[in-house]
Amino acid sequence: MKYEIAKRYLVVMAIIFIIGLILTLSSVSIGRSIALDILIENGGMDTAEYQLIIKSYIESLRACGVVTSLLGGLGTLLSGYTLYNNTNEQS
Predict the structure, then answer these.
(1) Least CB-packed of 15, 21, 54, 65 within 10 Å?
(2) Is 12 among the domain residues?
């Protein structure tokens, strides 16, 4: 039972880690896309304001991606260690 829970936890944490990496690596394109949508919605804006929006969204998405991947990576390591200890005890 404990082995199955740790195995599921490992899979979930690995998925969270991958999502964090994808979010971090694609933060520039997502930030530009959001800023372009805001530009179209407003019908135009000052260039400096547009650049500020792009920069702020990129930094926010990158920070979220880093935190998510760190938590997912730490969870993956901890659950992998638990699985390793359980397999040693079962052997």
Answers:
(1) 15
(2) no
- Kindly state whether residue 84 falls inside one of the protein's structural domains: no
Answer yes or no: is 57 within a domain. yes
| One-letter amino acid for residue 33 of the chain | S
DSSP states along 13-82: HHHHHHHHHHHHHTHHHHHHHHHHHHHHHHT---HHHHHHHHHHHHHHHHHHHHHHHHHHHHHHHHHHHH
Q: Which residue has the tokens 């390793």?
A: 84
- Express each pLDDT in 30-50 by its tens digit: 999 999 999 999 888 888 999
Smallest Cα–Cα separation from 56: which of 31, 21, 38, 30?
Answer: 31
Q: Are 76 and 14 in contact (CB under 8 A)?
A: yes
Q: Please state the separation of Cα 41 from the chain's center in Å.
A: 27
Q: How many domains does the chain have?
A: 1
What was the pLDDT predicted at 44? Answer: 84
